[in-house]
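We treat protein structure as text, and this decision shapes the records that our systems exchange. Because each token names a local backbone shape, the row as a whole describes the fold. An entry from our holdings is shown next, in its original layout:
>
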Amino acid sequence: MIFELPDCFFNILHLYLLSTQTYQSGGNALENFIVCLNAVAPIFIIIALGYLARRLGDIKRADVFRFNKLAFRYFIPVMVFYNIYVSDLAASFNVKLMCFALLGVLAEWFVSMQIVKRTERRPERQGVMIQALYRSNFVIIGLPLVKQLLPVGADLGCIVMLLATVIPLYNVLAVVTLEHFGGVKTSKLGLALDILKNPMIVGTIVGIIFQLLKLKLPSGLEHAVAQLANATSPIMLFLLGGFFEFGDLRDDLKTVAAIVIGRLIIIPAIMLGLACLLGFRGVEFASLFGVFASSTAIASFTMAQQMGGDAKLAGNAVVATSALCSLTLFLWAMLFKTLGVI
């Protein structure tokens, strides 16, 4: 079978291989380059491998949806739970950080809605575009990236606190947005139940309960949970690569290009710039980096399917932002690493 990988895959891989050959200690610019490239390269390589597997016929796109559902149901809640379980939430509780993240997401959503309502007339596409702009892939791409950018052994409590607050907000805003524009009505009770049944919310609630009650897992079970948690990000990134279908992008090229610019360039520039000016540094800034600079969430595609949105456009937004975020994440990470923010 003859196939071609996108040029950006080879460009980033070439930079990564070149950097590993030319690295020498000394020189902050080169050291920052290596740190940022090593943070982004694993994400890109695993996504590319998933894409390659599908092009070789080892997995089909239909399989991706099925495995993706299993991963969301069984792996993601375990990963979220474990990150909370091993973190010192009391020491990491940061009202300023949480308020900035929540208000930032709300601002993204509100501004995106005002712009989209004036530029797109079809309701089934309006909700999808708004969701694609404000809802980042914090768990699958943002979280592993942040771990790579931080020193080994750094406490991820700040990131976990954002997971516990930002993810529920993402889900509430998504349901409200798609219900408003898609014509599918959900009762308040149904909305609450949908949010509570979300695997990420389940993992968050159970993790917080363990933290509050200071419960400990038996040693064998804890090791099993740790192994499942560590496997989650690679599995989800691999499946994301298998989801890619670049040929479909031609039909929505102008709209998808606008989403890419907004999600990967404009929003990070504004939100991360504000975070820098407000004095967020280190782990705090890295956690915001995961929220505001990562690609459109895969879950946005699933929700668009279920709630009457343009599922094809939603899928194209996920594909395009995920394919290009390796480059933009590297550039943003390099910029803020050079500034000494991360």
